[in-house]
Amino acid sequence: MGRGPVEARPSGCAAVIFYGKSGAHSNRTKASQDRSPLPVNHDSSSSVQSPDSSRSSTSTVSTSIEDEPGAQTSHKSDKWRAALDGTSTALALLKEVAEMFSSVPYIQVVAGIAIKIIEITNQVQTNKARCLELIDKVKAYARIVFEALRRIGTSLEHSMIEELKDDLLGITRVLESIYGILQTTFASTTSARFVRLLNRDDISSRIQEQDRRLDTCITAFQLKSSIVLRTGTQFGAPLPILNQPIRRVHRSRPKPQIMHGRKEEINAIVAALSQPADAGVGIAILGPGGIGKTSIALSVMHDDQICSKYGDNRVFISCEAATSADLIISDLALALRVPLEGVREPMYAISTQLRRAPHLVVLDNFETPWDLPHVRPEVEDLLADITAIETTSVLVTARGSQYPAGVKWTRLLPPVRPVDLDSAMSIFRDISNKMDDYVTKLLKAVDCVPLAITLLANLAAVDGETTEALWNRWEEESTGMLEDGPEGRLSNLEYSVRLSLSSPRIKRDPDALAFLRVLSLLPDGMYSDTVFACGKVLPSVGNVNRAISTLRQNALVYMDSRNSLRVLSPIRLFIRAEYPPTPNARTFLQDYYINLASHGSSPDPDIRNRLTQEVGNIEAMLIDALRSGARVGQVVEATLNFAHHTYTSGVGSTNVIALATEILSTLQSNNPAMESLSLLASANQPKARTQLGRLHFWRTKAPELPHLPDIDPLRKLHADCLGCWGQLLSRQYQFQQAETKYTNAIQLHAQAGDLSSQAYDLHNLACLYMRQPGALAKSKETFTKAMALHDQINDQVGKAYDLVGIGQIHLQASESKLAKTIFLEALSLYGTLKDNPGRASALDNLGHVALTRSHYNNAETYYTEALGLHKASGNTVGEAGSLAGLASALLLRSRFADARTMIDKAIALRSPECDAGHLHILGRILIAQYKYEDALRILNRANELHVEAGDQLGVADDAYHLAYIHLQQPDSFSAAWEMITKSLQCYEEAGNILGQGNALSTLAQMDIRRDDNDDDGCQAVDHYLMGCAQIRAAKFQDALMSLNQALDLHAMTGNVQGKADDKNRIAEALLRLGDTNAAMIAVGEALAMHIQINDIVAKETILCSRLHPPRTVALPESEKSLRQLTATHRGRNGFSPRT
Questions:
Q1: Which strand (E) or helix (H) includes residue 565?
Q2: Which of 3, 316, 408, 640 has the fewest CB neighbours in a 10 Å radius?
Q3: What is the DSSP letter of 287?
Q4: How many CB atoms lie within 10 A of CB 722?
Q5: Before 672, cis peptide (omega within 30)?
Q6: Residue 957 and residue 976: Cα distance in Å, rounded?
Q7: What is the largest CA-CA distance in the chain?
């Protein structure tokens, strides 16, 4: 079974991308056409800041852009008139309070921005209803805020207003964001109209986000202002939960009930603290906020070994509110029950207590006192004094990655990282008792940060809350939804991040936050080349290296396993929302990645590796640039170039090309003025001619072509994006969606007058039809149409690709001789044109033919040559395909170890993507090696992927071999019957005659066993299979017993072939037992029996020393009746013992 022929699978998509300047027609275009058909705005100052691309990387852009003139109903007019009611009253109140607090600048600012928002009510042109609601809310809240301020100003000291400063500044930031959004709805510049055109839905979501933030800020302000007015005192102690943390001293705190993924860290710390030592142990747990440092410390504190060594002398002190060394001493004395009244030397009294017995002191949130520059020296001295006590071990937790000085640390642990995905899932499940695909998405979105996981799980635990709803909320609100109860570092993720940003070290280095704002645009982090470029010319950051050092000290950035400087997802999303980069810095990063994406078709290995590394960043910045509304033509061309890399590497998504397509569609359908402008921009260029060719960026001279009709550049670019999108979807097995894209592309290319691209659209459609059951004739007809167009415009490269497609059709129809002739013709044509990617495609298909005809040596030669060409052109997907072909050829030559090496390389090349065909081959290899349990797991996964892709042939092949595995296992006959029946059905639907023959033959053999399970012949087979299993388990004596029983039963039924097979296995068992003479006699008897029944295949098997050589009998080359095929395959590709 593991060595039967491996079916060639039609790809469902073309060999390479056919569109764009680096695509099918790239090198046959006049240089003047390289200029974009769309206007390019190089003025960086006019680029509009885009929202968080992670929230706007969808594949669609609304085509309903502006409200129709005159379409406002009387209801809407009434609402707008209602929106103006009370405006004069609100304005008067704002101005009055502003004059009252004329010496308080932040009140002047909040009043000024509120007045601006109220005054632009009549100017809003987009999202009017939603904007009206928000403006009404601003007016209502303005009355609440300024009424409270007026009451404070008239009844209390003006200094009391300082207690509300932070809240008023928070309200100011929200109002400024609201005003910025509202400005985009009425600005009259062309650029602003274009942005509104594209981003109407996004503007609505941003309004919703600011609405939520405004509610939060006003609620906090109301609480504080009411207390000020009621008590007439400053906050300090009255409001510890809002203004400063409470000092907490504990002899001990409970052990965390839910703890996953921290076994390694806990064990390392416990081992260090448990060892006997002459001096105290000092260990620091460092890392970013919310990463779980305190939980690790508490788990260590309650470990059995730690409890045994330190007993009740374990104390936990939170330094969150300790702002000096004296406060730490006071808390420590309280925890140790050391009275300090009248004591002149508190530390002497404390150290005396600590020396009486082994103690463990946990200092949590130690960064609070240590970060303060004016107290750092005394805090470090205190820590050094405590760790110097030989009976005392100290465990410190602190935000950041820098160790306090002056301490001889026992072990330097790396900063704590997020937990792995499995542990994150366990945490979530323990809290919420829920787990599904949406949970996995959520956990990945927050980078498996423990605090974020806990908050999300608590939200999911609410009755009636679904994980799908949570995911939808996350896409809208991001980190804003991660809060649970009162604001605090352990209950609110954004508060935790703000706490890190308020560190004195961050405040002392303004470049740190400026660089963090830029870095947070990159989901995959920043590699060294980009860091170097930023250090040279990045606007708004003076010293990049110093900024990185500061951020690392505060654990706001880290280096991942790929040496990329990264920000944890929750921090990154918060920074993007609250601290976007300056326009110049954003434009710099966009330009950098646009330039990198433009090299997407380069064959240079270093460039391709770089592109693969930066896929996430390139996609994020291209989306960011597209949504900014500037340089659309330049960005779309870069997108098409980058699509070549996505296609040939198999890495990346369709998000960018989808957005580019929708933007071009919007330009054409909703804004004809912009289309005219684009055509006018290219009016001074030579008229564009249809581009022809292939992915030959290295070719220096193109053949002469006849004059071709002029084309519409904007419409062509739109159609090219559709075709490119379709090819990427085909590569991802999303064939139904791809077909829609190709059909639309054909229409647009026809309208644009682009015959060449129409031909490639037809080629792509034909590739899709080839995978559809019963559609081979339709596919051939479509390939023929494409070839006719290619002949019409003398595109020999396109014709060669059409020939390859037609050859694949004949191969699927079991017409291997004709398929080979066509592939050889295409190979010759590619060679004449020096088209190496095309040659590789033809060679791969010749390898498929050779496999089908059992010419395994030839197949290996073809695949090896194709492999070299794929490597030279940087086609990772093609390279993996050739390796899989080599694995198939080696499998059929019984070189199982070599086959396994090849398929492992193919799977590794496509990782993390998973190719079902590659898994199928791996499963076949495992069957041949008798590793049935592994084969079952792998083939089941391959079957799942084939089902998802709608690949009937793949499903049939998987089911056929799964049936064989089930037959090797006890009590699995019914499962085997179900699988082989499913296989036959799928082969019939796919029209695969060869597969039907194999399945029918197997069903016939199984039917005999099912009808009479006590039949001597069936029992003989059972004993034979048992003997084979015992040989594999090295139970050779048991095997001899089972095989001799099979021999007796086969003799009773007169089954000579069965007797010969039994003798073969008996010989193997005897040989393993060292009885060479008896083994040779058994082999001779088996050979005589095979000669008696003229079993040529088995005879050759024995003569080749039972090494399972490739079958020498060629498979049928044309269609025969199912009865003939069943007879031909019986005992060869079916389920006879020999296979």
A1: strand 565-566
A2: 408
A3: E
A4: 29
A5: no
A6: 13
A7: 117
Q: How far apart are CA 41 and CA 191, in angstroms?
A: 9
User: What is the total residue count of the chain?
Assistant: 1139
CB contact at 8 A, 927 and 935: yes
Integer Cα distance of 602 and 628 in angstroms = 27
Q: What percentage of the chain carries pLDDT values higher than 90?
A: 19
The residue behind tokens 């027609």 is 25
Rounded to whole angstroms, how far apart are CA atoms 621 and 54?
A: 10
The percent helix, strand, coil of the chain (3-state, each to 5) is 65, 5, 30
Give CA–CA dist 893/919, Å, rounded: 19
Of the CA atoms within 13 Å of residue 889, those in its CB half-sphere come to 25
Distance CA 969, CA 962 (A): 11
- CA–CA separation, 648 vs 700, rounded Å? 22
Give which of 233, 283, 230, 285 is closest to 262, Cα–Cα.
285
Contact 741, 726 (CB under 8 A): yes
Residue 945 neighbours by CB distance under 10 Å = 20
**Spatial separation of the C-alpha atoms in residues 913 and 649, rounded to whole Å:** 10
Distance CA 669, CA 661 (A): 12
- Residue 1135: band (very low, low, confident or very high) from pLDDT cuts 50, 70, 90: very low
Contacts (Cβ under 8 Å, ≥6 apart) of 319: 328, 331, 363, 364, 365, 366, 368, 369
**Own/partner pairs for 674-679, CB < 8 Å, 24+ apart?**
674/194, 675/714, 677/39, 678/37, 678/38, 678/39, 678/633, 678/713, 678/714, 679/37, 679/713, 679/714
Look up residue 788 and give its amino acid.
A
Structure token pair of residue 444: 């990945």
Task: Count CB atoms within 10 A of the CB of residue 364.
Answer: 22
Residue 248, SS3 per DSSP:
strand
State the SS3 of 816-878.
HHHHHHHHHHHHHHHHHHCCHHHHHHHHHHHHHHHHHCCCHHHHHHHHHHHHHHHHHHCCHHH
- Give the Cα separation of 284 and 557 in Å (integer): 19
Q: In what order do the strands lie in the sheet with 359-364?
A: 248-250, 314-318, 359-364, 392-399, 282-287
By the 8 A CB rule, do 20 and 945 touch?
Answer: no
CA dihedral sign, ordered 952, 954, 955, 956: positive
At residue 267, what is the residue type? Answer: N
In this prediction, residue 576 carries a pLDDT of: 86
- Cα 706 to Cα 130: distance, rounded to the nearest angstrom: 57
**What confidence score (pLDDT) does residue 1131 get?**
36
State whether residue 213 is helix, strand or coil.
Answer: helix
Residue pointed to by tokens 């997802």: 569
- The DSSP code sequence of 922-949 is HHHHHHHTT-HHHHHHHHHHHHHHHHHH
Question: Which 3-state string (H, E, C) describes 327-378?
Answer: HHHHHHHHHHCCCCCCCCCHHHHHHHHHHCCCEEEEEECCHHHHCCCCCHHH
Contact between 1043 and 1065 under an 8 Å Cβ cutoff? The reply is: yes
Rounded CA separation 982/422 (Å): 34
User: If DSSP states are collapsed to H, E and C, what string results for 115-134?
Assistant: HHHHHCHHHCCCCHHHHHHH
Q: What is the pLDDT of residues 1097-1115, one digit of tens each?
A: 455 555 444 433 333 333 3
- Per-residue tokens: 825: 């013709």
Q: And the tokens for 25?
A: 């027609």
Instruction: Count Cβ atoms within 10 A of the Cβ of residue 785 and give its class: 0-12 exposed, 13-18 middle, 19 or more buried.
Output: middle
pLDDT per residue as tens digits for the range 626-665? 988 878 888 999 999 999 988 888 888 899 999 999 888 8
pLDDT tens digits along 262-316: 999 999 999 988 877 666 789 999 988 888 899 999 999 999 999 989 898 999 9
Query: Is residue 363 helix, strand or coil?
Result: strand
Residue whose pair of structure tokens reads 């058909």 in the numeric block: 37
User: For residue 374, what are the CA distances in angstroms to 318, 371, 380, 398, 504?
Assistant: 20, 9, 12, 18, 11
Helices (H) and strands (E) in the chain, counts: 52, 7
Strand partners, 394: 282, 361
